[in-house]
Design goal:
Layout (H helix, E strand, L loop, with lengths): L1 E9 L16 H17 L6 H12 L12 E5 L19 E3 L7 E3 H6 L3 E2 L10 E2 L11 E7 L4 H17 L13 E3 L13 H5 L1 E3 H4 L8 E4 L2 E2 L1 E3 L6 H19 L27 H4 L11 E8 L2 E8 L6 H4 L4 H23 L13
Parallel strand pairs: 9-10
Antiparallel strand pairs: 1-7, 1-8, 2-7, 3-4, 5-6, 10-11, 12-14, 13-14
Helix pairs in contact: 1-2, 1-4, 7-10
Length: 369
């Protein structure tokens, strides 16, 4: 049996709920995250065949298929399932920059609320209540736990795939509510697990794929790249997570603004903003989706994370490309389907250009260490 023990913490607060929805350390989300990045780690070796990958994943991580249920060969434990250490009364309410979300410059929102709406509740002037956490406490950035991973004796390739998945989790992994916006940015305190993607690293090269080729699949299986290199963008080094989240909020506003320039016709119709996730805001509700008994949800392909760079932090944006899910595509009216097929690549190209030319971002790509 192989075993790894890794000190773990978050570089940004995590909204990782327990049974009572309070912020608490729990091992199941860590295993689920490792599974996600394991798929990316091995995808190329299986020629991006989803069925083969899922079959292999079930043998390693276990699955509950009623006809052929298998027990997981890999187990994950945390040394402590403790509550988070960041209650409402210590949330840094006034430490965030405001972002301008309206064209007229009047709509201003605190960055933490903009990126964390849901787990963070806005101020209520009528009730005289301040901005607060919905289900305190959150897990703060100073709380450290120990993650133990052990798996049954397996082939060298299986062992390597687990270690590759750990490395990708370090580079790209977030946990908890609003994790795609950078909350719950995971960090392993282990010198053998570099904190950021590295130029020349074999694994880094293996998980890159031309982003337009990625659009043939509707599941996350690679980090996108174009002619200029990986679709990864980094902020300059900043001192603390508050500045990181403020910077990422500004960038997200600009990305959404670029996507909003694309729309089929008018209100209630498909637009570029829907490729960044759904729901997309009250003004961007889709008629076809709103009429369903359960409104669909679509996670963003464009992900945000905080990463460690020496004693500083950087904000990182990266694209995990996939096509618009077929299950949602079929719910659109035929004219909207046609429009989306004709404009999907154009919309993503516009998003990439926005990030390429953004004054708050530095050259994309792996970082030499």
């Amino acid at each position: 049996m192989e075993k790894m023990e890794i000190p773990v913490r978050f570089l940004t607060p995590a909204f990782l709920g327990d049974a009572e929805q309070q912020g608490a350390w729990r091992s199941p989300p860590f295993k689920a995250l490792l599974r996600q990045w394991w798929r990316v780690a091995v995808a190329k070796s299986f020629n991006y065949d989803h069925a083969e990958i899922m079959e292999k994943e079930g043998l390693l991580f276990g699955h509950a298929n009623s006809r052929s249920a298998t027990k997981s060969q890999l187990k994950i434990r945390l040394s402590d399932w403790k509550l988070g250490d960041l209650p409402n009364n210590t949330w840094p309410r006034k430490d965030f920059e405001q972002v301008i979300t309206g064209k007229d410059g009047k709509n201003r929102v605190d960055s933490d609320l903009y990126l964390g709406y849901g787990p963070i509740i806005p101020q209520n002037k009528k009730l005289n209540t301040p901005k607060s956490l919905k289900n305190p406490p959150a897990i703060g950035t100073e709380q450290i736990n120990k993650l133990t991973i052990f798996w049954e004796n397996s082939s060298s390739s299986e062992s390597a795939s687990v270690k590759d998945a750990l490395l990708l989790t370090q580079w790209f992994g977030t946990l908890g509510s609003r994790g795609r916006n950078g909350w719950g940015s995971l960090f392993f305190s282990n010198d053998e697990i570099p904190s950021m993607p590295q130029n020349g690293h074999k694994l880094f090269g293996n998980v890159l794929r031309n982003w337009q080729e990625c659009m043939a699949n509707e599941w996350p299986h690679a980090i996108g790249k174009d002619k200029s290199g990986p679709l990864i963008w980094l902020t300059e080094p900043l001192q603390d997570w508050r500045k990181i989240m403020s910077r990422l909020a500004v960038i997200k506003v600009d990305v959404r603004r670029a996507a909003k320039k694309f729309r089929f016709t008018g209100l209630g119709q498909i637009g570029g903003i829907h490729l960044l996730g759904y729901p997309a805001g009250k003004d961007w509700e889709l008629k076809e989706f709103k009429s369903l008994q359960t409104e669909p949800r679509l996670a963003s392909q464009l992900r945000f994370k905080a990463v460690r760079d020496g004693e500083m932090l950087r904000g990182m944006i990266f694209h995990v490309p996939a096509c618009f899910p077929d299950s949602l595509f079929k719910k659109l009216a035929p004219p909207q389907q046609k429009w989306l097929k004709e404009h999907e690549l154009e919309i993503w190209s516009a998003v990439h250009r926005t990030l390429d030319t953004h004054t708050k971002l530095q050259k994309r790509g792996g970082v030499k260490q």
